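Batch 3, record 17
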Amino acid sequence: MRRPTSAVLALLLVVSAVAAVPMVMAQQTETQTNRTTGHDTAAPGAQLSGVVAVGDAELDGDVESRAYDIRVARANGSDATAAVVADQLNRTSERVAELEDRRQQLEQARDNGSMSDAEYRARVAGLHAESKNAERLADRTNETASGLPAETLAANGVDVTAIRTLQDRAANLSGPETAEIARSIAGENAGQTARPGEAPNRTDASDRGGSGSDRAGATNETSDGSTSTDGGTASGSASDDGQRPGSAGAEETTTVDGRN
Amino acid sequence: MTGSHTLLMSVLLGALLVGAVVAPAGATQTEEAPGPSMTVDLAADGDARVTLVSTFDLDDESEQAAFEALQTNETARSAYEARQTDRWQAVADATANRTGREMTVTNSSLALSQSNTTGVATFSVTWEALAAAENGMLTLDEPFASGFSPDRRLVVVLPENYQLESISPGPSNTTDTGLVYDAGSDLNGFSMVATSTAGVNVTPDAASSATPVSDRTPVTTTGGSGPGFGAVGALAALAAAALLAGRRG
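Prediction for the assembled complex:
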């Protein structure tokens, strides 16, 4: 979903580069170090790359989930809803295929040495979060389809068996190794999004990525599912990934007190 | 001046006036969305305001409405800020283990905006002690030195009245706002040293008198014996202005 930098900005940078290169070259010194941290799996730089990728994937997933809910809410009648399901299935299927390809390419690059282990881990963490998005959408699509008549689904080209196959493919995108890498980079909640009606999960200091000290603020989940965040940081666990307590258009039940 | 010319001029003037009146309302529709970037805006005490800009294609009306819904959902944005703050703090902890400096990530914020069919997410944190500050000298290396692979433009902005002493690997280019590394740059072994030109030793203890990073605007940096980056930026801006004028003409 990334958009390339605009042509004007690109030209601006090119002009700056042409003018600046000689000057910068003069400023550089021979301070190149001989660090060999590229293969250090605990490298903070790789961790940062992974955190950035996971964060973007979560925003992307949040928007995708909300967009799907909006399409379903706007669909007028079963037939129109089935058409939304069919369209989403195609989108998710293409996405899963793309992620499968990317995972394979990453593994090949790591195995043949063209990609450092640190970069591999950073990219896999992002891929894990994107896989969770696809898994969530496949689950949501299945939920919607389960409420529609079989003949309506068939008339719109929706194959219920294909939905389950897609769910399995999406779930298998992030195997144990991938999930462990994502956890080490971004914590247990890597790939989490807060859809309407879903309360952010409680923070657990052990959920933090990397070495994480206990800096998490308190997020208090109440008996009615509402959540309040006071002053600190909050994150959730992955224990309920795939479970969707909320429904499209459900009212927000969460409240947030001021942070920072 | 003939009647037809007068009429033509009146129409043109009218169009200009109408354009002037309606332009502000429509300005956000034509405003260019920023490109993805990560900006590290350093302060003299070694703290940094790190700003991450991410862009998203909003391909249809439902995606635009979904982005708008997220934009107005404080709960979701706060939850995201909290998760990301935790993760950035974990990175800071790993970096602290390498550098021996205690680091804290605070004041996270997520701002969302739309420009045409592009959603823009701007996530910022203050990273305390990201750079080592000692006797008017700033040194920045980790976490960028170890396995960081920028998937977007990385911009390092020096504090006001600081000049670049050394940097490795060299930036892809420079602008009037800082040192720029293109997406995909190899930053392994990254190290940057800058020194104060003010003739005053700045130490972390002087943090209270330093301008907080969140309050500063990007500043012109100078380095070595070459001309200031401001001159380069001015040339670039003139070129961009000429380009825009050409497009409009």
